[in-house]
Amino acid sequence: MKLEKLLPIIALAFMATACDYQKNNTIKQKDLNEGEAYVYGVHPDSAAVQLKNKYDAKPELELKANALREKMFSGKSINQGN
Question: Which pLDDT value is given to residue 20?
Fold first, then answer.
């Protein structure tokens, strides 16, 4: 009888402590890129400089990627998100 009353209290205590499990599981580290416009932009609301890089399309890379996909996944069904 005592165990039946104690078990829900113990379960509730475990659930309450599990909510803050990751709160103390962090490491404070210095950000080496803090204030760098290339990574974070000149303002918190602006885009980073590295996002402005544009690359020319290379269709031969698309053909090579499709050949690799065919080699790796031939005969297997691939989920296309449909």
Answer: 65
